[in-house]
Amino acid sequence: MDTSHVISKLSYYFNKYGLFHTVFSFIGRYNQEFWNLIGFSVTSPYINKWKTQISVDKRILNLGGGSNCLSGCLTVDIDPRADAYVDITEKLPFDDCSINAIFCEEAIEHVDLKCGLQLLRECYRILKPGGVIRLTTPDLNYFASKISESVSACSEINEVFYSHGHRYLYTREALQFHCQEVGFTNLKMSFYQDCESKLGYLDSHANRFNHIPEITQYLEAEKSNYNQRINI
């Protein structure tokens, strides 16, 4: 083990999060049940600091981002390596209309449909008018099209359905329907690292997990507002 590297990392975490946050989140990496009990209490000061330092029109939430802490975003998840502990199946700890943009990459499929719909409602609640959400999740349409192609496709489909903690997969039509159901407007299908997207530059899942981007659907939607637009 490179001692200097470890010291450098610890120094970075101490400076960013503070002593207690750093120590307890490190313990949480080895005991998720422990982290589930104390994670929010330990990390809520960091959320409050972020709210104080970042104005609403600059707030980008990386929701369910795991260990992928993105520059310029607040990354929240139950993963101890996230910036702060947030359970996406519960009410999100943000005020109404207090977030400029939400990036939710490969997260909604990890909860069941009931929790997924609740998550969409919460995202709509916390977004400011004119705010945007970018959702990426496995594309059930893609896998349905592969069913009759080959025997190997069977393994690929089962891998997506039953591995990685997936609970519910969406067709493009279903995801769009549910987004509209909670109030989102101006829905637009996008693609991986779409340079014309306000949030496409944040996409990284296909690179990090070595899969083709086509197995994922990329949907952007807005919280309706006629007078204000997001500014990222």
From TrEMBL:
Residues 89-133 form the Methyltransferase type domain. GO terms for molecular function: S-adenosylmethionine-dependent methyltransferase activity. SUPFAM superfamilies: S-adenosyl-L-methionine-dependent methyltransferases (SSF53335). Gene3D superfamilies: Vaccinia Virus protein VP39. InterPro entries: Methyltransf_11, SAM-dependent_MTases_sf. This is Methyltransferase type 11 domain-containing protein. It holds the Pfam family Methyltransf_11.
